Amino acid sequence: MENLIVVRGGGDIASGTIHKLRRSGYPVLVLEARRPAAIRRCAAFSEAVYDGVSEVEGIACRLADSTGAAVDIIRAGEVAMMVDEQCSVLETLRPWALVDAILAKRNLGTNKGMAKKTVALGPGFEAGKDVDLVIETMRGHDLGRIIENGKALENTGIPGPIEGITSERVLYAAYPGIIHNIVQIGELVSEGQTIAVIRGDGEEHQIRASISGVLRGIIREGFPVNCRTKIADIDPRASERKNCFTISDRARCIAGSVLEGLMYLKTCDG
Questions:
Q1: CATH code given to domain 167-235
Q2: Edge-to-edge strand order for the sheet containing 170-172?
């Protein structure tokens, strides 16, 4: 399939790139994990793994159970998704480009031999060695910078600020178990309010909102979590509910750089 782009990962940041590539006319196949752990699920194509289909801002992504089914989905004008953490589909389907958008902060096996052109998002990759280009994902002056040689900035572990609030707006599991959501994405929450419970080892642990605002994201109902699993994200701007369901500014910036980077690599071929 001419100009096929394979994207590893379908989380909310990856979805910005997937959306832009498809809107720009490229056929796109997404490779996901068997159990995606996206928080901003209402703006993530990865939900197709669970529901069979996911739509983000007018673009549909449909789960396929075979390479042939994926090709049919793409030819019908939609984004195709397969559960394929090891990228085994590359043995039979040779893409023009591969984008690693897992954002695992480390390289989970992506290399330049996977496609004619390779791009990776964030830390864990070296441009010119592991992949052709690396895109900076750290918020700030260099967000979206296209790196031809070298690496992206290391992960600080501190979420980007919203109205000056950083770490307080993100919630992590303190106990292992199965999460059961009480509040849904897009609902207003108050500081101290119980938004979910984790049940495990015969005990139930309440997850309380760390700040007041709108629940921007929460991990999927019934997901098995471990200690320090990221489970929720609260936006202190209660008026920004619509942002829960759309691609973020950061994801759009990164997506534009991926598209530019691929166009640049194409021109390098003469």
A1: 2.40.50.100
A2: 170-172, 230-235, 213-218, 188-189
